[in-house]
Amino acid sequence: MPDPTFANLPTNPDVVVIGAGSAGLGAARRLLKGGKSVMVLEAANRVGGRAWTQSESFGVPVDMGASWVSGANKNPYAKIARKSGFKLIEHTHAQTDLFRMDGSRANAQDYKDYAKNAKALQKSMNRAGKKGRDVPASEVTPNDLPWMGAIQSWLGPMDYGVDFDEISTLDDWQGKSDQPSYFVREGLGSVVATRAEGLPIKLNTTVTHIDWSGTGVRIETNNGTIAAKVCVITVSTGVLATGKMRFTPDLPASKIEAAHNLPMGLLVKVPMMFDGARLGLGENNWVTYQVPNEIPTKACYFIAWPCGHDYLFGNIGGKLGWDLSREHSDVTVDFAMEELVKLVGSDARKHFIKGFRTDWANDENTLGAYAAVKPGHVGVRKTLGAPVGDRLFFAGEAMDGGYPALVSGAYTSGKRAARKICKVI
Ligand SMILES: Cc1cc2nc3c(=O)[nH]c(=O)nc-3n(C[C@H](O)[C@H](O)[C@H](O)COP(=O)(O)OP(=O)(O)OC[C@H]3O[C@@H](n4cnc5c(N)ncnc54)[C@H](O)[C@@H]3O)c2cc1C
Fold it and tell me: Taking the domains of the chain in order of start, what are their residue ranges?
């Protein structure tokens, strides 16, 4: 981790970047390269935002947010990780431990049906997207085929962070492939944090008000006011939609509307540490079980022993994730354990050491995991990303059309905003 206590902060920089997540770090680096003076203001006490690796809980790296280097051939973090000596572990063709509704192991025919029907589902979505149909995924896909509940659960709650009927077919079609994909043994959050090295970043500094009524911008924070020529806003759509960050004059109504039409989805991770027992699950395997084809989904799917660590992590998304996030963390861990026991038996309890759930739902600096376009609203990513008055620039995962919801898309969107700024100041 870079030292977050940065010296020599400029007092009146050309650009203030709000947020030291992937987008903010990408923007700041590109602006400095373009000869601009920059100050990054970050509300949290750490850099990285939703890319965060911590080792305190289990003594080994746990990615609380982003963990896959997705679409690795076009992902800047794949190159950065390799160059900085991180260990990438291929996850593109990872195996699945598949279980039936009654907890028994799936047979060869089940695996075939699962793969075939997953393809059929994606094909129906692609067909709709290709025709420009911007409708809920549930409207165009077959739902009476075997394993459909499980397939929809992976794509909806676990992948998009929303239930299957809240995915836009057109937005899905416009996204680029997330394969090949890799884990990082030391954690993807650690890779993102390297982008902060040497940057002028002020932590524990929450922006409360942006006054852009004059020729530049005046940024009010809990640590004082800073003047700059322009600013880059990289907060999540969840934060933007609350209106807690005030603007004078107000942001155009279309901007606020766009944030509401790109609401935050939720993925709750449930890291669970075991004593070294593998419970019959293969390292880096997906662990998936049959569920009724009902929306909202009631499932917790696992990644077993990522990178060979002695923990697995459960994934719970969409409405169930939001509901559980209103309860104590132990309730989520108990739910995950119950689901696991159904698959591998009560031995799981004997070998279990401790677990917890991530809390992106209640983190006031994010208010969810990542944004998902509401069906019928494709186009909002562009509206949200458009600059206002040549003084307010926007970046973040929600604004990248190619790799939305990913650290790579966030980073690229930050660089894109910086390039626009370099043209106007
Ligand atoms: C559980 C989970 C799993 C994920 N899995 C993956 C994955 O496997 N692969 C992948 O590529 N992506 C994944 N993602 C998504 C990825 O983490 C995000 O898309 C990306 O990190 C977002 O970056 P960002 O810069 O747009 O936003 P953020 O990282 O949220 O950065 C915005 C920053 O602004 C700060 N901020 C907020 N309000 C204020 C304020 N008022 N003043 C100052 N600062 C403020 C925040 O603290 C934050 O640091 C996952 C995310 C989650 C939560």
Answer: 15-54+187-262+378-424, 95-178+267-355
